[in-house]
Specification:
The protein folds into three domains: about 1-165 and about 400-415, NAD(P)-binding Rossmann-like Domain (Rossmann fold); about 165-195 and about 265-395 and about 425-460, Dihydrodipicolinate Reductase, domain 2 (2-Layer Sandwich), CATH 3.30.360.10; about 210-255, no CATH class. Helices cover about 25% and strands about 25% of the residues. It has 13 helices and 20 strands. The strands form four sheets. Strands 18-17-16-15-9-14-13-12-19-20 form a ten-stranded mixed beta sheet. Strands 5-4-3-6-7-8 form a six-stranded parallel beta sheet, with helices on both faces. Strands 1-2 form a two-stranded antiparallel ribbon. The longest helix has 20 residues, at about 420-435. InterPro entries: Gfo/Idh/MocA-like_OxRdtase_N, Gfo/Idh/MocA_oxidrdct_glycsds, Gfo/Idh/MocA_OxRdtase_bact_C, NAD(P)-bd_dom_sf. GO terms for molecular function: nucleotide binding. Pfam families: GFO_IDH_MocA, GFO_IDH_MocA_C2.
Length: about 475
């Protein structure tokens, strides 16, 4: 704790010009008093992005890695540390032991969704600064407790909504909130991402000739989940707060996204980014009415979450015209799709997250025109003739903002405040509850309870398995 206080009090002036002498050896910064030691929890997929991005930052060291799958460590250390002439990090398979390490200043939580809030709360209680991947919570109760913890303890807590750091998204929100598009009455979030079948497999280890193939980016990997492989996996720790179930490869690496116990479907996976943008641009917090329909189409496999889902949220808008409300539409589509986003007049977009198979982004509708937005650009089309209007772009560095916020002890510099992240995640959970119950729901944003619907209220939280319990009192 004393070391963190020193960072906070000495680093404010180092954001622009470093006044602390440093020694540069290879790619490593040594001996600087304002160095931030970061630990990454979860190193299989996105965890590697976190490692690489922190290593690019001046005077930041990835000092520890934590993962329940010890099979991953050797390759990760070679690829990200020893091959770069960097000091090998300390290794942990139990995050609780990591949190006891007083030399760790900050952690990135890059676990499966069912661990996000609990891991972040434990880290906050241990005095660590926290960047928690999206969605920051697996249900609404967890998100409420995470926000409480962030407010109670003197640490920086950053939500994984990376677009909050992008000049593109910031200028988008400024434009929409300025009234230049007229009365913005509706937003759409699009998550049309090509997803193949996950198949169905029996519980237990795989036979030696059975392989589980998966793809990360453009690289293909094959991982055998044999008895020998699983002997190096702390599966009890992986299950954490969830019920004790036997190992199944569809309830493990990546495919957990499509199981309600661990994931939140694609609206809570890729879609959480576009949900955050839609809510931000529309200028709303929590809805009064939610309706969601969909299903699991085309495939007969082990997926329990929908692969096609249409959700509509209604928000009160006392200052608006007509019916005094705003609408947010969100759609998940897993297979064939058409183009809906536009980057130039008469052209369809083909930018970051928009590809031959994917269409990821947002649309905003105002009384004077509409806006099309992808991750790295937005453009307005004005009037009935949809003439090309204002535009914006620019990508930021979410990881750098987290480190800036730590050094300056200023939560605002982190850009993605955890409370804003929670509100966006709450929409995802409300939509999924409506889908799972098969009916339209009315919600009270003040009490954060459903109106006259105790069955729906039970789905705001879940039962926790000891000792992995999200605390009622943080």
């Amino acid at each position: 704790m004393e070391r963190r206080k020193f960072i906070k009090t000495t680093a404010a002036g180092s954001l622009a010009v470093s006044t602390v002498p440093t020694i540069l050896t290879g790619n490593r910064w040594k001996g600087a008093n304002d160095r931030v030691n970061v630990a990454v929890i979860g190193v299989r997929g996105m965890g590697q992005n976190h490692i690489q991005e922190y290593q690019k930052l001046e005077n930041v060291e990835v000092a520890a890695l934590c993962d329940v799958d010890q099979n991953l460590f050797a390759e990760r250390i070679k690829k990200h540390f020893t091959d770069k002439d960097l000091k090998a990090p300390q290794l942990y398979s139990d995050m609780r032991k990591l949190f006891e390490n007083k030399n760790i200043d900050a952690v990135s939580v890059v676990t499966p969704n069912h661990w996000h809030s609990l891991a972040a709360i434990w880290a906050i209680q241990a005095g660590k600064h926290v960047s928690v991947e999206k969605p920051c919570c697996h249900n609404i109760y967890e998100g409420q407790k995470l926000v409480e913890a962030a407010k109670k303890y003197d640490v920086i807590v950053q939500d994984g909504a990376e677009q909050r750091s992008n000049p593109c998204a910031i200028s988008m929100a400024d434009y929409l909130h300025s009234g230049k598009l007229g009365e913005v009455y509706m937003a759409k979030g699009l998550c049309f991402k090509w997803r193949d079948s996950i198949g169905s497999y029996p519980d237990g280890p795989m036979k030696k000739d059975e392989q589980f193939a998966f793809t990360v980016g453009s690289k293909n990997y094959v991982t055998p989940y044999t008895k020998e492989y699983l002997s190096k996996v702390d599966y009890n720790m992986w299950l954490g707060p969830t019920p004790e179930l036997p190992f199944n490869r569809n309830r493990f690496h990546y495919n957990w996204h499509w199981n309600w116990l661990y994931g939140n479907g694609d609206m809570g996976n890729q879609g959480v980014h576009e949900m955050d943008i839609a809510r931000w641009g529309l200028g709303v917090k929590l809805p009064a009415k939610i309706s969601s329909i969909g299903g699991h189409f085309v495939f007969n496999d082990a997926q329990t979450t929908p692969n096609d889902q249409i959700t509509v949220f209604e928000f009160p808008n006392p200052d608006g015209s007509g019916d005094k409300k705003k609408i947010l539409q969100f759609e998940v589509r897993h297979w064939m799709t058409n183009r809906e986003l536009a980057s130039k007049a008469g052209e369809t977009g083909n930018t970051y997250m928009v590809s031959d198979t994917n269409e990821i982004g947002n649309l905003f509708y105002g009384s004077d025109g509409f806006m099309s937005k992808t991750v790295n650009n937005w453009r307005v089309f004005e009037g009935q003739k949809r003439e090309t209007g204002a535009s914006g772009d620019g990508l930021g560095n979410h990881y750098q903002n987290f480190i800036h916020a730590i050094r300056a002890n200023d939560q605002k510099l982190a850009k993605a405040d955890i409370e804003e992240g929670f509100y966006s995640c709450a929409l995802i959970h409300l939509g999924n509850i409506s889908y799972r119950l098969g009916r339209t729901l009315e919600f009270d944003p003040e009490t954060m309870k459903f109106i006259n619907d105790p069955e729906a209220d039970t789905m705001l939280t879940r039962e926790y398995r000891e000792p992995f319990v999200v605390p009622e009192h943080v």
